[in-house]
Write a structure and sequence with these properties.
With 220 residues, the protein is mainly alpha-helical. The chain folds into 2 domains: 57 residues, no CATH class; 134 residues, no CATH class. It contains 11 helices and 4 strands, in the order αββαββααααααααα. A hairpin with a 2-residue loop joins strand 3 and strand 4. The longest helix has 22 residues.
């Protein structure tokens, strides 16, 4: 039924985007936006006999517009697509759940779950400009993974042995294996960054967020 509304907006020359009953119409001024809001409401309620949710209907700047997790910003080269900060917050919340120190699955199973979520999320938001943000999120993700790995090496002997196998000197391995610092602090240390590198996680099959986004973006 809302196809009739699409046809009406197109006939009037409006630039708009709609998904189901969620619609955004873009005009040049606040005054024009007020007129369009009134006319669209009239079409929907009088002609289509549908009810417009007045609480969710408003006039706002395009920078404040949100649609299905996407937002917009302006640059010298034109309008760009970004991800709503709330969607980023939900991304981090889900990754926290998937990388909880309490996870009771094998590393490979945990990585498989992470990969499924990361691939789906990046595929959905691949049109958005995310490069800088994902670089920071990847650092955070790898630190969470190092925290899990350190917790898995519960004993002094396991920590020392594994650090040695990953190229850390014996004295340093002994010092860090005996450390009483918290998991998160150690996960951010230079020693674990040097031993549990990005290549280490690549070999285990973990998909980085930025790399996955770039790969999917090229196929969009």
């Amino acid at each position: 039924m809302l196809d009739d509304l699409d046809a009406e907006l197109a006939a009037r020359g409006h630039r708009f985007v709609r998904y189901a009953d969620d619609i955004r119409v873009f005009v040049r001024s606040e005054r024009a936006a007020g007129r369009v809001l009134g006319s669209v409401t009239d079409v929907v309620e009088r002609r289509l006999k549908l009810l417009v949710n007045q609480e969710k209907s408003s006039v706002r700047h395009a920078r404040e517009a949100r649609l299905l997790g996407f937002g917009f910003y302006f640059s010298r080269s034109g309008v760009k697509i970004r991800v709503d900060p709330k969607a980023i917050a939900r991304l981090k919340m889900r990754i926290r759940e998937l990388t909880s120190r309490r996870w009771s699955v094998s590393m490979f199973c945990g990585i498989d779950r992470l990969n499924q979520f990361i691939t789906g999320w990046m595929a959905y938001f691949r049109l958005a400009d995310l490069s800088h943000r994902l670089r920071e999120l990847d650092k955070w993700l790898y630190r969470r993974m190092r925290q899990i790995r350190w917790k898995e090496w519960k004993r002094y002997s396991a920590r020392r042995r594994n650090l040695r196998q990953l190229g850390i000197g014996d004295r340093t391995s002994r010092e860090w294996a005996a450390s009483s610092k918290g998991y998160w602090r150690i996960a951010g240390s230079a020693i674990l960054q040097r031993s549990l590198t990005t290549s280490y996680w690549d070999d285990l099959g973990l998909l980085g967020m930025q790399g996955t986004w770039r790969r999917l973006r090229t196929t969009a």
